[in-house]
Design brief:
The structure is a homodimer. Chain A is α+β, with helices and mostly antiparallel strands and about 140 residues long. The first copy, chain A, contains five helices and six strands. Chain A is flat, with a radius of gyration of 17 Å. The complex binds manganese (II) ion (MN) (2 copies) and zinc ion (ZN) (2 copies). The first copy, chain A, binds a DNA duplex (30 and 30 nucleotides) through helix 2 and helix 4.
DNA sequence: CTTGCAATGAAAAAGATTCTCATCATCATT
DNA sequence: AATGATGATGAGAATCTTTTTCATTGCAAG
């Protein structure tokens, strides 16, 4: 995942794009909003415009470099596309995100789509719950 | 599903609430946005404020009368809660929504959540694809 | 009927994302 | 390396969805 990926996407290799891709690669939390990316870069002393962050993330999505998720909360989160598809589990208390993939579910989805005459192109499966952290348990 | 349901939810039985509940019951499309509800009521010659529609839909959700979905597109859609849980399939071309429920997937979800130490409280599964309509097929 | 308190609606505010447009940077070509 | 065409940037305005404010209205308990 480097500048060549930007070039291959038909995009010019610019400083903002390098910075954003670098942050997505090195940041500890894999799932970040546009606002997150913007603030983190500013905190790192980098200069960038918020409009550019939104634009570049959308371009990266179109290019297949990142994936956009619509978790609850009204704002999109992005993550670097590291090959394999996976689904998500989100803690409704602390927001922790776990990733998982289940072949049984994946297969059934394709079957169900076909049964309804749909040609599946994508899907979104998000499990909401209380994570293992005691502070996130019901009735803490 | 009548005025008693509103009362049972601890809400006063007001005209706006009766109108919104009535529309959700009788409207042909089950999945509607707040804006949809607002415009449809206005079209029917009913008087109502947009803020009230948002407020009431959220109250109905809290009361378990309606369910909110975050499909792609940046705005929430609501549907009257008619007993059974189900998941959704959305046509990426025409927006048609099909409902389905699959016990295999439902069971696997609970298992997976547990495997990850999560106590599942909810989930969202949306399959995106091209529906059976020829005009929605790839390469029309 | 009275009356308290919840509910309404218009308008303002907030939050997320996109658009506009003048300026600037990249990169293929000289 | 210099040039130039074209794409990219960023500040701010605009847009879109949703929430909040607050003066006014209307349920519903007594
Ligand atoms: Mn992920
Ligand atoms: Mn439904
Ligand atoms: Zn948690
Ligand atoms: Zn369709």
């Amino acid at each position: 995942m480097d500048n060549q990926d930007i070039r291959k996407a038909g995009l010019k290799v610019t400083l903002p794009r390098i910075k954003i891709l670098g942050l997505l690669e090195n940041n500890s939390q894999r799932h970040v909003s546009a606002e997150d990316v913007y603030k983190m870069l500013l905190d790192n002393g980098e200069e960038i415009g918020l409009a550019t962050v939104y634009r570049v993330l959308t371009q990266f999505e179109t290019a297949g470099l990142v994936t956009r998720h619509n978790f609850e909360g009204g704002h999109a989160v992005f993550e670097l596309d590291r090959g394999g598809h996976h689904d998500h589990m989100v803690c409704v208390v602390c927001g922790k995100v776990e990733e998982f993939i289940d072949t049984t579910i994946e297969k059934r989805q394709r079957e169900i789509a076909k049964e309804h005459g749909f040609e599946m192109v994508d899907h979104s499966l998000i499990i909401y719950g209380h994570c293992g952290n005691p502070k996130c348990k019901v009735g803490y």
